[in-house]
Amino acid sequence: MNDDRLYRIARLVADYVRSPSLRHLRDPHFIQAISAKILKEIVHHNPTWTKWTKEREAIAKVAAFCWIPLDDFRAYLNAMPGPSLTQTDVVERLRAFNEEDYADWPDDRQQEGCLEIYKRERAEGTDMPAIVGAIETFVEQDKEARRLAQQEAHRRSVEEQRKAAEERLLSGADCKWTAIGASTTLHCRFNGRTYRLEPQPSRRLELSRVESLDDVKGDFIGSYTRRADATKTVSEMAYKSEPRWR
């Protein structure tokens, strides 16, 4: 008798028999329609978590990804229609939400912020759904802020590595393929020898041995479709004797 489905089905039946027309009540089309509604209520109900109504499920699914005092949240849920929930009922239902595919667990870094919002709003008399909503907004904004900060830190790291590689090339030290500024032309230095790799309109890469970064002409070595092939050639040539330069 405590199954929430019973109350929902009873409401459907009550709405149906409220019609003053017996013809309407006996019409096969409308009988089929009310039957479909009843079936939907039964099928869509979660048979595993029998104490959890739609309303309880909706707010718990949001709260599962936030930090909210469990005792207070359980008391709020028990004030809603439905069977009484134990602490284990609430803990395990929230854990099940966290373990769903593509779901998250509450972030420890957000715990202090979540609880601060909860205490402030609770003191002001804010209702639980509004508090959960405010905490959810904080969680999403904090998550986005952290993502942007991480993205910016990665961008700075890449830029610092680029500058360090450029400085290494300019210093005359051996280095991997490196571009100067925004240039699409790459240079590398292997065993003290400098090589240039230039992309062509044909999408091939022309490899040349150059005396310096300012050497416009250089000695053409070959054309390649992949940088890895050019790198292999350089690694082999760098230790072989080469003709005297012009």
Concise description?
The chain is α+β, with helices and mostly antiparallel strands and 246 residues long. The protein has 9 helices and 5 strands. The model has no long low-confidence stretch (mean pLDDT 88).
Can you describe what's shown?
The protein has 246 residues and is an alpha+beta fold. The protein folds into three domains: 1-45; 48-171, no CATH class; 172-237, no CATH class. 54% of the residues lie in helices and 12% in strands. It has nine helices and five strands; from the N terminus they run H-H-H-H-H-H-H-H-E-E-E-E-E-H. A five-stranded antiparallel beta sheet has the order 1-2-3-4-5, sandwiched between helices. Strand 3 and strand 4 form a beta hairpin. Helix 1 packs antiparallel against helix 3 (28-43). The mean pLDDT is 88.
Short key terms for the protein model shown above:
3 domains, alpha+beta, 246 residues, elongated
